[in-house]
Amino acid sequence: MGDRGGEEKVPDADQVSVLLPGTESESQVDRNSKNFDRSVTVMRSNLSTGPREKWGSKMQFMMSCIASAVGLGNVWRFPAVCARNGGAAFLVPYFIVLLVIARPLFVLELALGQFTSKGSVRCWDMSPVLTGIGVAGAVSSVLLSTFYIMLLAWALIYAVISFVSMCTGEVVWGAQPGPYFGGEVLRGISFDSPAAHDIHAWVPICHLVLALLVAWLLIWVTMVFGVEASGKVAYVTAMAPYVVLITLLIVGCCLPGAKVGIYYFVVPDLNKILIAEKSNHYKLYQFRFQAVGQCFFSLGIGFGGCIMFASFNEFNNNIIKDVMIIGLVDTFTSVLAGFSLLSILGFQATQTYEKKKALMSAPIPITTEYDKLVAMCKETRGTSEDDLKICQLEMLVNEGGAGVAFIQYPAAMYQVNEQWGKHLGGFLGLLFFLMLVLLAVGSANGFVGTTVTILADRFKDWKRSNIVSGVCMGSFFLGLIYTNGVGSEWFDVVDQHGVTAVVYVLSFLEVVAVLCCYGLKNFCDDLEFMRGGKKVGWYLRITWVTLPFLMVIIFITWLINYKPGKTWTGPIKAIAWTLTALCLSIIPGTAIYKYVQFIKDPWRRNVPLRPFAILQAIADPSPKWGPKERDIRTAWKEFKAERDPSYHICQRIFGICSRKSGEVRPDRRLSFATNAATTRPSESGGGLASGIGTPLAASAGSMAPPSQRGSQAPVVQERKSKT
């Protein structure tokens, strides 16, 4: 985005020096105090007046959010989870979680990004002590992007194989897609296998490395040309999958046995969500917990992608309406994918059942173990044929996840190819895997874009194209761990310990930061200002208050249901929990860094060097918090000056603990009123401080040394007397 012609060029904020009130020159400041030997340097992120790159239109933002939300999980995870957990009955806990947890968190993250026009790290100027939330989210996002792009590489491999099958009329994976996927494509070796101790098991496999390289090149092409170009790519990645899903649904409904799969998907089984089996007391909670995981990872909450997308919005965009639309589209896509996938899996289950039924009239070989055969007959006694078909379908659905996409779906395509035409199976396979490629690209743009935006906000002199190239190259090398024989085993390790556990904790801390460190009332006031005076409804207020308790319950439930991989050895388990600890240790580590940084900073606004006083200072919003654009920031300061500066929980606790006996608590929240009064152009007579609009004038009195406060001292004294 170039500079607008005809406007006066504003000096770079990093080079702007503003003299404190009561001083005549910069040299006088240096002479009066050796601790204040420099002028106040206004941070670029605080007073940046340069235009931030924006979406070309609101539709680009919507398409990008939809492309990011609608991912691989909607196609292969939701249908399997829904079918395993009671069919349509699963939608009851799903919608409850969506309305009570996912949607309020989604609004909160979009509001943070749009209000500050910053990425998922810089937006935590709201409470600098919790900046680690954004950093940990970025690390988790990088980990997620590494194995997510590997899934994209698998889809690319199968798209090429499907194209070859369509041209030749012979399905490459044959009648045994499972062994082909694990043996030929992945050449998988489990952690507990003796072969895992061989050095060759850790050598990257050539075709997987090549596929991973092509996948990252796709991501690079879609992001290197800027935000507006990425928004245009989102039209394709968001809309094209629906064409494929509808095509697959039409074809699937024409196949024999499709009604068996659709029946299994639609008809509710309330027993699975209301009654727990005696053999597993936690199974009931596990079913309900599946709804939580589906909502979280479908909408991309906790990674920072939502904040990143919203940061390129116009300031007054209606995010409440956007969240409703995105949530409905995401759910509709999941249900549509369920109909499409289960209709085809129903066909496969029916065909497999018919083959097994034909074997019942065949001669029994003398080598058959009759005890096992009799036991199987007893298990199926009194069971109808339709129930046996459902039983076979359950076996297919229980594969779950990538197994549905790369094993069960190719098996169905083989049967289609055998019965309906030699080229149809390859064609349907090509459509399906191209759809997976588009979905993966759309979602990956959110994960990778989070890291790119964080670096672009931090290093403003770096070209965005160079940042994109560096992130893609670095992530490619990190992803090489998934290209060797044991690579597929690392998926669950990183997914459970580097992503799932971390995101639940980050989401909890996000809400705590808003409620306790900044204050729910302050946050709602900011949303009201951003929405042009429209107040935040009680639905969001109530759900935000209850979210911390619900997030604690969710994390405890995750711990209860946690099961390490069956093939994980002792060292692998240690590595897994170390990964979780490292990701979460970023949060207290960043808090300690902010604490030490504040102590060493001579411009600490005259805060006494007592632990709780410093904690209060770094828990409160920094001077850089607020809208980024100058005019909007000035209007926001005046708007906040008219509001009741009520204290929030952390400020009360830290304020009480940090005061000595009989000490008067300074009302730091009233600095908004001082800001508005001291920075209006009509009263200040123009100049740089009045034009920029707020930050320095608000805190100049408290930042100056005692001998130089000048005219600011009466203002502070007046605030104390009012207290």
TrEMBL record:
Subcellular location as annotated: Membrane
Keyword 4Fe-4S tagged: no
GO CC entries: plasma membrane
Main location: membrane
InterPro entries: Na/ntran_symport (IPR000175), SNS_sf (IPR037272)
UniProt KW Protein biosynthesis keyword: no
Gene Ontology molecular functions: amino acid:sodium symporter activity; L-amino acid transmembrane transporter activity; metal ion binding
BP GO terms, sorted: amino acid import across plasma membrane
Keywords: Amino-acid transport, Glycoprotein, Ion transport, Membrane, Metal-binding, Sodium, Sodium transport, Symport, Transmembrane, Transmembrane helix, Transport
Membrane-crossing segments per the record: 61-79, 91-112, 133-161, 201-227, 239-267, 287-311, 323-347, 427-455, 467-486, 498-518, 538-562, 574-596
Coiled-coil stretches noted in the UniProt entry, renumbered to this chain: none
Binding locations of Na(+): 69-70, 74, 298, 439, 443
Composition bias, Polar residues: 673-682
Compositionally biased residues, Basic and acidic residues: 1-12
Its membrane topology: Multi-pass membrane protein
Region span, Disordered: 1-32, 673-723
Family: Belongs to the sodium:neurotransmitter symporter (SNF) (TC 2.A.22) family.
Stated role: Unusual broad substrate spectrum amino acid:sodium cotransporter that promotes absorption of the D isomers of essential amino acids. Neutral amino acids are the preferred substrates, especially methionine and phenylalanine.
Protein name: Sodium-dependent nutrient amino acid transporter 1
